[in-house]
Design brief:
Blueprint lengths: L1 E8 L5 H10 L4 E5 L12 H6 L1 H20 L14 H26 L2 E11 L2 E6 L6 E11 L3 E3 L12 E2 L13 E5 L3 H12 L3 E6 L10 H13 L3 E4 L2 E7 L4 E7 L2 E7 L1 E4 L3 E3 L6 H4 L22 E3 L10 H15 L13 E3 L4 E6 L2 H6 L4 E7 L4 H5 L6 E7 L5 E8 L2 H13 L4 H5 L10 H10 L7
Parallel strand pairs: 1-2, 1-5, 2-3, 5-16, 7-14, 8-9, 8-14, 9-10
Antiparallel strand pairs: 3-4, 4-5, 6-15, 11-12, 12-13, 17-18, 18-21, 19-20, 20-21
Helix pairs in contact: 1-4, 1-8, 3-4, 3-5
The structure holds flavin-adenine dinucleotide (FAD).
Length: about 475
């Protein structure tokens, strides 16, 4: 039996960040992770670094270059003949980025003296973790811990009775490693992952059709922006079918047939591959929750309070395996907050100020409440909107189809929500998050000097528009 102050189960952005912060605070910490890379070697970083945020953004960038070369360079007077795509080089670049970053976490563990235990962990008691190691002759390690942090993350959800086959009916992990570019790609689910990966393969040449069950596109997004995104993605060549029910997906000899019903009756579409991106399910089923009496809700999430405490003494849970947005930065911030609370400090997470990003192009990002949410809450608010067609920098970048929208309290002018569909929205949203953290008013943003020419001037203009005094609109 080895004794630790803290044992973290899971080494994704929730778990590895929690482990490092615990070690920084002077706690003797071990992180147990079951992750293996494509070569079967132990790897840290979880979904985010290995098969999520990072590899998807690497491909996103490559696909942008290819698309620009084919469609946009000619507008700049740059002509290219005989453009070729070498997918294996593109994949190698992506894999090298992943290897560099996951190796970096191992270095950070060494630097901070976090013990990395490679294997599958389960709770035996609230202060006792058992690990089956990855070695060929697996060993069982027994770990005693004053505190346990569960950060076991999530895995792609399957459609009922349509299992993944790893080849034609696939999850997001497989969609990051295609060997060839599918001529026709079907994407089930118009959520963040479906739209991001659908756009990647569409830009690389797949005829891509996205199936959205609901008649509302991007339901949780401010609908003025969602409609603008829908229009833009269609213009870029993505086919988006809405308000339908998938009846069956069948693998045939040379293609996959998707049968679905919409307002015109039963339809079918043949594609080469189908990416099922209908959400993710929490990894709570292999940690012996029942055995130790850990409360799990009906959807499989570990039940926690606002401090990420479970019902077991000294046992916390963070990240995708608990309620809240399934985002890497949310998992990491929960990890830091839990480490600091174990150390006796005060730390909280405010879900209301977590930024969201959808990495399509232009990018979509938001923080705070949407118009629809404020209407439902009966909150009186003012709206400022600025369309990117009036922004010189966006026009120079050839990306002037979006808008920025700011919602502020009608009485106090405090910013309640900021919504951006514009180039580099993933970076610009930081300004809005900081403003909201400091309870800024729209007037504060309107009085802040923004450099010219930048896309950020559109934030300034939207803030001015809250008071109907936008200059360039
Ligand atoms: P995970 O990253 O899932 O890590 C959990 C770890 O626990 C894994 O390493 C797993 O092997 C290990 N584990 C599980 N069970 C055990 C056990 N019993 N014993 C030991 N180890 C165990 N989020 C963003 O914020 N931005 C993005 O751009 C973004 N892009 C994404 C793109 C894709 C294609 C996908 C699929 C996801 C994306 N996400 C993004 C979501 C993000 O990856 C997750 O929210 C994040 O990884 C969750 O972190 P986590 O630490 O909770 O869990």
């Amino acid at each position: 039996m080895v004794d630790y102050d803290v044992v973290v189960i899971g080494g994704g952005p929730g778990g590895y960040v929690a482990a490092i912060r615990c070690a920084q605070l002077g706690m003797n910490t071990a992180c147990v992770d079951a992750g293996l890379n494509a070569k079967g070697e132990p790897t840290l970083g979880g979904v985010c670094l290995n098969v999520g945020c990072i590899p998807s953004k690497a491909l996103l960038d490559s696909s942008h270059h290819f698309y620009a070369l084919n469609h946009e360079f000619k507008n700049h007077g740059i002509a290219c003949d005989n453009i070729k795509l070498d997918l294996s080089t593109m994949m190698k670049r992506k894999n090298d980025i992943v290897t560099s970053l996951t190796g970096g976490i191992a270095m950070l563990f060494l630097k901070n003296k976090v013990t990395w235990i490679k294997g599958h962990g389960r709770l035996v008691a609230h202060n006792h973790v058992e690990v089956e190691t990855h070695e060929k002759k697996a060993k069982i390690l027994e770990l005693n811990a004053k505190h346990v942090i569960i950060a076991t993350g999530s895995t792609p959800a399957e459609l009922e009775s349509i299992p993944f086959d790893g080849d034609s009916i696939i999850d997001s992990t497989s969609a990051l490693s295609f060997k060839n570019i599918p001529k026709r790609l079907g994407v089930i689910g118009a959520g963040v992952v479906g739209l991001e990966l659908g756009s990647v393969w569409s830009r690389l040449g797949s005829k891509t059709t996205v199936f959205n069950r609901s008649d509302t596109f991007l339901r949780t997004v401010d609908q003025e922006l969602a409609q603008s995104v829908l229009h833009e993605l269609k213009t870029q060549g993505l086919e988006i079918k809405m308000d339908l029910k998938i009846n069956s997906i069948k693998k045939m000899a040379k293609h996959v047939t998707i049968k679905y019903s919409d307002k015109d009756g039963e339809q079918s579409l043949s594609v080469d591959k189908v990416l099922v991106a209908v959400g993710r399910k929490p990894n709570s089923d292999h940690i012996n929750a029942e055995g130790v009496g850990l409360h799990i809700n009906q959807r499989g999430f570990i039940e926690v309070d606002e401090y990420c405490r479970t019902n077991l003494p000294g046992v916390y849970a963070i990240g995708d395996v608990v309620r809240g947005p399934m985002l890497a930065h949310k998992a990491s911030e929960e990890g830091i907050a839990v480490a600091e609370r174990i150390a006796g400090q005060i730390a909280m997470i405010d879900f209301y100020r977590i930024p969201w990003v959808v990495y399509i192009w232009p990018e979509l990002a938001w923080v705070g409440r949407t118009s629809e949410q404020l209407d439902a809450l009966n909150t009186q608010y003012n709206t400022g909107v600025f369309h990117l067609r009036g922004n010189g920098r966006a026009l120079s970048m050839g990306a002037s189809s979006g808008l920025i929208k700011i919602l502020s309290d009608a009485k106090t002018d405090e910013i309640l929500g900021v919504h951006m569909f514009c180039p580099n929205a993933s970076e610009l949203i930081g300004e809005a998050v900081v403003a909201m953290e400091f309870h800024a008013s729209a007037e504060d943003l309107a009085r802040t000097i923004h450099a010219h020419p930048t896309v950020s001037e559109a934030i300034h203009e939207a803030a001015l528009d809250v008071d109907n005094r936008s200059i360039h609109q």
